[in-house]
Amino acid sequence: MTQLYSKPSIFGTGLIALDLVMSIDKSQPVRAWTGGTCGNVLSILGYLGWDSYPIARLNGDVASLQVKEDFSRWGVHLDLAECTPTSATPIILQEIRRDKNGMPIHRFAWSCPHCGKWFPGFKPVTVRNLALIAPKLIEPKVFFMDRLSRAGLSLASIAAERGALVVFEPSAKMDSRFLEEVLQIAHVVKYSDQRVQQIEGIENKQSTVLLEVQTLGDKGLRYRSRLPNAKTKQWKEMSALSLPVIADTCGAGDWCTAGLISLIGIGGFEGFKGLSRETLINALRYGQALAAWTCGFEGARGGMYFSDKSLFDEQIKLILKGDVSGIIAAPCQLNDIAVQTQISCPACAVS
């Protein structure tokens, strides 16, 4: 296992999928990119210079090969991405349209539009892999999870014992037993008000959660903290940052998460525990700037394919300054992007 000690490392498990993005411009081919909350967060952090390690069950099917190739493009390490038993990779179809006011909207589909069969669903890493994975959690700064499972919780606990900041972002219905357990392991919990109104138990004495973040769509976010140097008695709200032109809002929450982690997680749990109020607010604002930036592109991570890193850095600085007049949505033409002309459905002949 190659470990670059000069970089902070993040290990993550949860939804890693193949996103099939259908442009608002129907003349464009379908774009195939790594997706899912966990897949996006780890890819973005790879883009931001972190060592990212997805813990998954990717096999040798077409979708898995595309996910692995895309991960590699962004420097994401695949050492733990093929845990046994391997499984078909989840596929999510995202279609971008316009609403009656001409604004871009998107909808997701989990079944093939050709044959009607369901695409493969998420399957968590199994407990039998713990003995093989645990020794490879070397100097983790952050452990991320968006789906709860017995193996995932065990790995999060091991990472926490080794100094990692544990970040949990629920993206699906949660087992109440697992939820109670994760709130005694995680240090940061972030969720969207569109998916979860409130998570009960975060403020219990047994809870290890020191930072709770709830995103509110175009209204921004709110947070509350039990950090020693940044305590808040009540929710604190932060208005959203925005662009003059919106191409697609998909993935904004994932970019916000990755941006936040990149600043609060670099020192692991000990560094996080000592954060000042100012540093915390700056990290949240940075996450919001990344969320705003990605809305200028189609797909959850489209900007990573249309924009080089230097331009990304410049535009984030402008967004943070409020100078967004020169930032426009990216055109739809492809530039060395993974594409396919048909939907990758493993259940029908159209592939």
**Main sheet, how many strands, which sense, barrel?**
8 strands, mixed
The total count of helices amounts to 10
Task: Assign the structural class, choosing from mainly alpha, mainly beta, alpha/beta, alpha+beta, or little secondary structure.
Answer: alpha/beta
The percentage helix is 25-40%
- Rg, rounded, reads 19 Å
Beta-strand content bin: 15-25%
State the end-to-end distance: 34 Å
Structural domain tally:
1
The run of helices and strands is: EEEHEHEEHEHEHEEEEHHHHHE
CATH topology: UDP-N-acetylmuramoyl-L-alanine:D-glutamate ligase
Which stretches are low in confidence, meaning pLDDT under 50 for 5 or more residues running?
1-5, 331-336
Q: What's the CATH C level?
A: Alpha Beta
Query: What is the overall shape?
Result: globular
Number of strands: 13
What CATH architecture label applies?
3-Layer(aba) Sandwich
Provide a brief overview of the structure:
With 351 residues, this protein is of the alpha/beta class. The chain has 10 helices and 13 strands. The chain has helices at residues 37-47, 62-73, 130-133, 150-161, 176-182, 252-264, 268-273, 277-294, 303-306, 309-321; strands at residues 9-13, 17-22, 30-35, 51-54, 91-98, 104-109, 142-145, 165-168, 188-192, 211-215, 221-225, 236-238, 339-340.
Would you write up a description of this structure?
The chain has 351 residues and is α/β, with parallel strands linked by helices. The protein has a single domain (9-332), classed as 3-Layer(aba) Sandwich (UDP-N-acetylmuramoyl-L-alanine:D-glutamate ligase), CATH 3.40.1190. The protein has 10 helices and 13 strands. The chain has helices at 37-47, 62-73, 130-133, 150-161, 176-182, 252-264, 268-273, 277-294, 303-306, 309-321; strands at 9-13, 17-22, 30-35, 51-54, 91-98, 104-109, 142-145, 165-168, 188-192, 211-215, 221-225, 236-238, 339-340. Strand 10 (211-215) and strand 11 (221-225) form a beta hairpin.
